[in-house]
Amino acid sequence: AVEVTPELRAHIARRARELRATLNASAPAGILDVVTVASAGRELFTEAADPVRVRWLNLELGGYGNLVDERPLHLVLGVGREDRLVAHVAAYRAQRGVALTPALGGLYTHFFVEPLDAIVATRDQIRASSGTSELELSFGQTGTPTSLPTSARFPRDVFERIAGGFAAALFLQLGTLVG
Fold first, then answer.
1. How far apart are CA 114 and CA 163, in angstroms?
2. Count of CA atoms in the C-beta half-sphere (13 A) of 26
3. How far is CA 61 from CA 17, 70, 76, in A?
4. What is the pLDDT of residues 125-154, one digit of tens each?
5. Contact, 103 vs 147, CB < 8 A?
6. What is the C-alpha to C-alpha distance for residues 99 and 127, in angstroms, rounded to an integer?
7. How far is 95 from 156, CA to CA, in rounded Å?
8. Dihedral (C-alpha) 136, 137, 142, 147: value to the nearest 10 degrees?
9. Global pTM value
10. Under 8 Å between Cβ of 178 and 16
11. DSSP structure string for 55-86
12. Closest Cα to residue 122, out of 177, 159, 166, 72?
């Protein structure tokens, strides 16, 4: 493990402030490359010897797969149940829709497990297309056939909200480095 000296900590803090400024400047215009800032954030947290946030950014960049099907989110992230990171991730990754499976119709909250680059690619496809105000999404079946819906309807901006929510969470998490 690399020792985080006061000089290194000051260097990391300066770079974290710069990355936060980038997040602030880009977010309102919707021009932020979230994959690039996630990678930059992961590099900073690696240098700061912060394994929790490195794990979080690895999950964001690589996807959550079926990890959240098998364990609670706080265990997947490696933090306590009340850690703010759990609330941040759940706020942007868990999106409400309407289940279209007949026996499970009604409001449904889906945790989007895809890597950030897939979220961004889908967001960009939707931006470039015309269509209705809602999206119908199909899911791979991970539970028993009657336990989870196989499809649901979401607002058209669902992928925009995930990417934007991630950027907001990264901004907040970078605050731990600028202290």
1. 11
2. 17
3. 22, 20, 15
4. 998 888 778 888 888 665 555 567 788 899
5. no
6. 23
7. 12
8. -20
9. 0.90
10. yes
11. HHHHHHHH--TTHHHHS-HHHHHTS-TT-HHH
12. 159
CA distances from 117 to 12, 35, 54, 59, 172 (A): 25, 6, 17, 12, 21
What is the C-alpha separation between 110 and 117, in angstroms, rounded?
Answer: 18
Compute how many other C-beta atoms are within 10 angstroms of the C-beta atom of residue 47: 18
For tokens 């901006």, the residue is 157
Token output for 106: 């009604």
Q: Report the SS3 class of residue 30.
A: coil
What is the 3-state secondary structure of 103-151? HHCEEEEEECCCCHHHHHHHHHHHHHCCCCCEEEEECCCCCCCCCCCCE
Contacts of 151 (CB under 8 A, 6+ apart): 99, 100, 101, 136, 137, 138, 139
Digit-coded pLDDT (tens) for 23-71: 988 765 567 899 999 999 999 999 999 999 999 999 999 999 888 887 9
Confirm if 152 and 99 have CB atoms less than 8 A apart. Answer: yes
User: Can you tell me whether residue 15 is helix, strand or coil?
Assistant: helix
Other Cβ atoms less than 10 A from the Cβ of 136: the count is 12
As a whole number of angstroms, the distance between CA 126 and CA 164 comes to: 15
